[in-house]
Write a structure and sequence with these properties.
The termini are far apart. This protein has two domains: about 160 residues, D-Maltodextrin-Binding Protein, domain 2 (3-Layer(aba) Sandwich); about 100 residues, 3-Layer(aba) Sandwich (D-Maltodextrin-Binding Protein, domain 2), CATH 3.40.190. Helix 2 crosses helix 3. The protein has twelve helices and eleven strands. By secondary structure, it is α/β, with parallel strands linked by helices.
Length: about 270
């Protein structure tokens, strides 16, 4: 028997084996949220984003690898051939041109401008950010370059003088932004009301709607465009639709909001999911 007759069946066997592998196997799932990562790893999700993610990721049965990674490293991985996805991303115009997105998995109230309690309350709402820092050029606001604030708010931030912005780098950005603001190291922060429920409640006394910003944002799973990730996103979308049809997705959100916000949240939810 010559070597060609041996190698041909072997090549066929290898090809058949790899074709039989599930397309969603060995996908890297990145998050830069330490709280979400820890609760998902422990299979005890806490919070809106972690609970909804847990319901669609099939942990620990699915063949995915969950990793806590700074977003800058995630961007590098997304540009490789390695099937990579990242949790809780906004679908911006720039990202849509390059990456795959699941259907919306989360609906969050838009970020509000939170002001230090040491300052006099602002008189006008919604707040014009550009005008605010024009009137108070010595004041500062903490931001993070590890995620997008959404197209509209990203545009506003780019128009602000750099001297008024304090960048908070690294992972665990949500608690980090809160800590910097709570310790009064800056005058302002752009925070999500959902992140504050049950914590730092005193901060709600000086928060303001931002002029030109939509009232809510949507969180998606974002992936690079590979055969495995296309199959993965299709599967995720099926599970999201099941959560919507069963009413579970709504309940997972509403349980983390104060009753005073239920009515307005329901209106936004129906606009997106029904």
């Amino acid at each position: 028997m010559n070597s060609r007759s041996v190698l041909k069946p072997l090549a066929t066997l290898i090809t058949t084996y790899f074709l039989a592998l599930p397309l969603h196997a060995n996908i890297l799932i990145h998050t830069d949220n330490t709280h979400d990562y820890n609760s998902l790893i422990k299979l005890k999700p806490l919070g809106i984003s972690a609970e909804t993610q847990f319901h669609v990721l099939d942990l620990p049965k699915s063949n995915i690898q969950l990793e806590l990674v700074p977003y800058k490293r995630t961007l590098k991985s997304l540009d490789t051939d390695t099937p990579t996805c990242v949790l809780s991303r906004l679908k911006t115009k720039q990202r849509k041109e390059k990456y795959l997105f699941s259907q919306p998995l989360n609906l969050f109230f838009s970020r509000r401008l939170y002001q230090s309690s040491t300052l006099m309350p602002l008189s006008n709402e919604p707040v014009d950010l550009i005008n605010l820092f024009h009137q108070h050029p010595q004041r500062t606001m903490v931001i993070s370059d590890q995620f997008s604030y959404g197209d509209a708010l990203d545009r506003l931030i780019r128009q602000l003088p750099k001297k008024n912005l304090v960048n908070r780098d690294g992972t665990n950005h949500a608690p980090g932004l809160l800590e910097m603001f709570f310790q009064k190291r800056v005058d302002y922060a752009l925070l999500n009301p959902n992140e504050l429920y049950g914590h730092y409640l005193e901060l709600n006394k000086q928060s303001y709607e931002i002029k030109g910003i939509p009232p809510f944002i949507l969180g998606h799973i974002m992936c690079n465009n590979r055969p495995q990730t296309r199959s993965f996103i299709d599967n995720i979308n099926i599970k999201i639709q099941q959560l919507i049809d069963s009413g579970v997705l709504y309940q997972l959100h509403i349980k983390h909001l104060p009753k005073s916000q239920h009515a307005i949240f329901q209106r936004y939810y129906q606009r997106v999911f029904q």
